[in-house]
Design goal:
Helix content: 25-40%
Mean pLDDT: 94
CATH topology: Rossmann fold
CATH class: Alpha Beta
CATH architecture: 3-Layer(aba) Sandwich
Number of helices: 7
Radius of gyration: 18 Å
Bound molecules: adenosine-5'-diphosphate
Low-confidence stretches: none
Distance between the termini: 31 Å
Largest sheet: 6 strands, mixed
Strand order of the largest sheet: 6-7-8-3-9-10
Shape: globular
Structural class: alpha/beta
Number of domains: 1
């Protein structure tokens, strides 16, 4: 069988309170794709993302990554498995007592890189996100848009295969939003698969990439060059 990088097969997620957030979802995503997940709040977008980066597991069906069932990964190996992913969220989740440089370097320290490697790689990624020369600042000394650019840098510093962006522009003004979208495209152009969950119609229409529309835990549409159209 010709497996895509990510395959969801009849994935159902019932939370412990009995709420069914995903209901028999089938979906395949290839290496290098840029996919937008859209739909109303509560549609199941975040839950679907969590299935992919192994933050939650299906209660029925399975998610395959590189042909392997994620749920079969041994618990102690999950942290290594999760290195396939970088994540950014609506709140930037930067550590306030660390500088921009330290926030990004932290991931590489955890991965056991040398100081010289870390210095080079962090400075490189700061240039990619147009934050060169701002490494010494603290999160409260930069704007929200800049903080999200730092979060993006941190998310991709270890060169993950997949970048998961869950409402990354939810707290940003239109100009900062556009900068983040451009960066997501740039990161995608380097070969990283990007999966973006968003409410923002203007972003998705501009992207002209694949759009998956969700409603009530199901996929309603899946268009290769889609627009954010709610009424099917
Ligand atoms: P979206 O990202 O599209 O807004 P979510 O995947 O966050 O949707 O949520 C889908 C539904 O699942 C929502 O109704 C939400 O309240 C519910 N839900 C999410 N997480 C949990 C949880 N841990 N326990 C129970 N219900 C949850």
């Amino acid at each position: 069988m010709n497996m895509k990088l990510i395959n969801l097969e009849r994935v159902t997620k019932e939370y412990s309170d009995g709420f069914v957030a995903l209901n028999g979802v089938d979906c395949a995503i290839d290496q290098g794709e840029f996919v937008s997940l859209v739909g109303a709040s509560g549609a199941g977008k975040s839950t679907l993302l969590k299935m992919i980066y192994a933050d939650e597991f299906p209660t029925d069906g399975a998610v395959y990554f590189g042909g392997r069932d994620i749920a079969q990964t041994k618990r102690r190996l999950l942290p290594y498995f999760r290195r396939n992913f970088g994540t950014v969220f609506q709140d930037f989740k930067l550590l306030p007592q660390k500088t921009v440089f330290e926030n990004i370097a932290y991931t590489l320290e955890v991965h056991g890189k040398s100081d010289a490697q870390i210095y080079d790689e962090v400075n490189h990624i700061l240039r990619v996100v147009n934050m060169a020369d701002q490494g010494h600042k603290y999160p409260n000394q930069i704007s929200g848009g800049e903080q999200q650019r730092v979060s993006l840098a941190r998310a991709v510093i270890h060169r993950p295969r997949v970048l998961i962006a869950d409402e990354p522009t939810g707290n940003l003004d239109p100009i900062s939003t556009l900068e983040i979208v451009k960066l997501l495209l740039k990161i995608n152009s380097f070969g990283t698969t990007v999966i973006l969950a968003t409410h923002d119609k203007s972003i998705v229409d501009k992207l002209n990439r694949r759009v998956i529309l969700m409603s009530k835990g199901r996929i309603m549409r899946d268009d290769l060059r889609g627009k954010y159209i709610i009424s099917a």
